[in-house]
Amino acid sequence: NAGVTQTPKFQVLKTGQSMTLQCAQDMNHEYMSWYRQDPGMGLRLIHYSVGAGITDQGEVPNGYNVSRSTTEDFPLRLLSAAPSQTSVYFCASSSPAGVDTEAFFGQGTRLTVV
Amino acid sequence: GIQVEQSPPDLILQEGANSTLRCNFSDSVNNLQWFHQNPWGQLINLFYIPSGTKQNGRLSATTVATERYSLLYISSSQTTDSGVYFCAVDKAAGNKLTFGGGTRVLVKP
Q: How sure is the predictor about B94, in pLDDT bands with cuts at 50, 70 and 90?
């Protein structure tokens, strides 16, 4: 099992450009989430999904879109990149509330917007 | 939302020393995890511990859910233990984690 895989690992964008960060998991987890980590801080929730076709906003959703067409994939779209979106982005997956809801994270995507 | 506070913010240890990191949270939780973020930025799962005590090698963790805190113990620290340790909680499942600010640990040889 690869776990949670994010691509790309690094990306530089110009202000106003758009891009999609990819996230895929092979653990058959229903729940997936996107977080961002700014320097010296903990992670903050951007968007999350409880299953295919269902998404919702987290703490810092502005400037980002998501969709969930399959259980395995949860892409994050930046519509018009801004310097304030320079950050490290993490994708995570987990199972619904029950015995074990441990979340597993991808290796992160370091994004710089110039 | 839930507030998560970690202490101390910074910790400098001599190799071989023991230490305790603390995580306080403001509401009941169904998920509590400890992570180690290594110098390359990778988040490594240490413990999933919404209650009780667990041990994994030189690391152990205890969560007292009724008093809303968790402790991470590092024994016989090694330089590879350096990095940032995060506590994260969720009231329900593990898909909406709230992270603490982290404890930055530096282990000197």
A: confident
CA angle A92, B54, B67 (to 5 degrees): 85
B22 vs B7: CA distance, rounded Å: 5
Count of Cβ atoms closer than 10 Å to residue A38 Cβ: 13
Q: Which residues of B lie closer than 8 Å to A, measured between beta carbons?
A: 1, 4, 30-31, 33, 35, 41-43, 45, 48, 86, 88, 90, 92-102
Looking at chain B, the whole-number percentage of residues with pLDDT higher than 70 is: 100
Mind listing the pLDDT tens digit for each residue in A34-93?
A: 999 998 889 999 999 999 999 999 999 999 999 999 999 999 999 999 999 999 999 999
CA separation, residue A45 to residues A32, A109, B64, B67 (Å): 11, 15, 25, 26
